[in-house]
Design goal:
Blueprint (H helix, E strand, L loop, with lengths): L7 E8 L1 H6 L2 H10 L3 E8 L3 H11 L2 H5 L1 H11 L4 E9 L1 H9 L12 H5 L4 H7 L7 E3 L3 H11 L13 H4 L1
Antiparallel strand pairs: 1-3, 1-4, 2-3
Helix pairs in contact: 3-5, 3-9
Length: 171
């Protein structure tokens, strides 16, 4: 028998340099909080190329999916400023976060998603321009990826278990 606790997941979310530099951190975080996701870890960091390589290629296999040039553009873009790394927890958090964020290519994102409401770049344009896609947010793609990403970005003592009032209505 499946227990309700089996549906509680954690997802890594990284608010990228364009979110931080545009001053829309609060608006983006609010989207997650409003649906009842709980922040169990959060920090502002300026990762080095080694962490981004482990994240985007070691876990995400970006080179095999989009090529070395797209990977290089993305890492250069990510290193243009600090990011906010968060771990969100909730009922089926991984697919819920992906739904809220929208597809990776902002041009394809529906209005009402974070990428659809705050960005519009296409892969073609960014490739022609020679830059990464400023798509505001990284969100774990699946449960296995989320676990690996959280372990990469956070130490166990940076994550917190606590109850919040939303749980009464969202769990």
């Amino acid at each position: 028998m499946t227990k309700s606790q089996d549906f509680i997941q954690r997802s890594l979310v990284v608010l990228k340099p364009d979110t931080v530099q545009r001053g829309i951190i609060g608006e983006v975080i609010q989207r997650f909080e409003r649906v009842g996701l709980k922040i169990v870890g959060m920090k502002m960091v300026m990762p080095d190329e080694k962490l981004y390589r482990m994240h985007y290629e070691g876990i995400g296999q970006m080179i095999s999916r989009r090529g070395e040039q797209a990977f290089r553009y993305n890492v250069e873009y990510m290193m243009t400023g600090p990011v906010i790394a968060m771990v969100l927890e909730g009922v089926e958090a991984v697919p819920l976060v992906r739904k809220i964020v929208g597809p990776t290519e902002p041009k394809s994102a529906e209005m009402g998603t974070i990428r659809g409401d705050f960005s519009h770049m296409s892969f073609g344009y960014s490739d022609a321009k020679g830059t990464g896609v400023p798509n505001l947010v990284h969100a774990s793609g699946n449960i296995d990826e989320a676990k690996k990403e959280i372990d990469l970005w956070f130490n166990a003592n940076e994550l917190y278990d606590y109850s919040d009032l939303n749980e009464k209505y969202t769990r």
